[in-house]
Amino acid sequence: MGCCESALGTHPEQEHQPQQQQQGLNPPLNTHPLSSAATTAAGGVPSFSEFSLSDLKAATNNFSPDYIVSESGERAPNLVYKGRLQSRRWIAVKKFTKLAWPDPKQFAEEAWGVGKLRHRRLANLIGYCCDGDERLLVAEYMPNDTLAKHLFHWDKQTIEWAMRLRVALNIAEALDYCSSEGLPLYHDLNAYRVLFDEDGDPRLSCFGLMKNSRDGKSYSTNLAYTPPEYLRTGRVTPESVIYSFGTVLLDLLSGKHIPPSHALDMLRAKNIVLLMDSHLEGKFSAEEATEVIGLASQCLQNEPRERPSIKGLAASLDPLQTKSDVPSHIMLGISKQVEAPPTPQRPLSPMGDACSRMDLTAIHEILVKMHYRDDEGTNELSFQEWTQQMKEMLDARKRGDSAFRDKDFRTAIDNYSQFINVGTMVSPTVHARRSLCYLLCDQPDAALRDAMQAQNISPDWPVAFYMQSVALAKLDMHQDAADMLNEAAGLEEKRQKGGRGS
Q: Which of 65, 79, 228, 330 is the most buried (most CB within 10 A)?
């Protein structure tokens, strides 16, 4: 059984409802959710109910692409739509791929387990739908985007330090509540799972309390961010959730989605200043930052038993809170929203389009035309460094470039490897080119490693993320690929708004 197994039987209606729902899947005992007389839980959140497919089609304009709010748009395997009920309540609807949950009873039981939760730190689950092969979850709609959007793709202002501390505490409190209710397993906790409500308050998406399929993997993030024990066993544990919470703390500290191993290397070298988000412009407490860095390091311990408890993390974060009297929407620099914002439509660049179509020939043409313009500033060499070794290394790169243009990809790999192995210069473009060569030689694992190395050299370079997207898709990690493609498009959009070419 999945993450909700321990909660089964705790809901007063739950023991009997799933069996009833499997036979015709009729609405449960409480009033239909579209009715104005629907039972409402504390805090104005409707009681958990079954929705009909026709209700959800009407709410989402027949699941129109214009209503998609998934970070990866239509490329996400399990799409999330915004919708509006007849009661005028806005909802978020997660639509699973066909047969992700073959057994409707099993899906209903899992949904009821999550649906019993109600907390102000959660974007609460308010219903589900089983109809034929269709499996859908319905949750409260959060109109003010994700933590990832505010941290990585902001266009007005970055998140101030006090607000970052508030996010960390609120998410720790949400996880602590879920754990206390018998649901300690949260699948794929990351900055995309943290949402901001109409008041700008951070909430944890309830969707992460259920896996994307009955037997599917629990993590869709890049392998570099996955708990080490999950890579070994394929199982999520409460300690795995703590590791993922540590990666969110790193995001809040750095303002970037950097691999934990890279961040820990910086901390061991005492490069704390380099880790901190430069967009904060020094406007943070060094003592508080040191405390959060310490908590992140504890969460990212390789041995699960050495990580702290979520309750302990919440207790440690609570004394760090400042500006408690300042509303979240003011700290975020947003207006309180009553209506849902329009769904953003992000057009893909030629590179993004080629990657989304897995068109390796088109990617090759674009990389050839780009030459090395995005390597500017990655190397600062003194005159003394121009040795015979340097000449040989640059000659190897030239031979690699010539082979790359001529589509002799194995020769290009050999020459680019000579250049890289010397290590005197670093070039994200060389890694991107060798990544494509590996893809064309049917070596997606090596291609992914090169694309990740390009990101380490140049953390905001869209091409590095695009190449990771293609490699992940080749490895059949389609959710990862969709997330990475969206990340790349966001970085490219940010560059263009900043006046730089992509």
A: 79
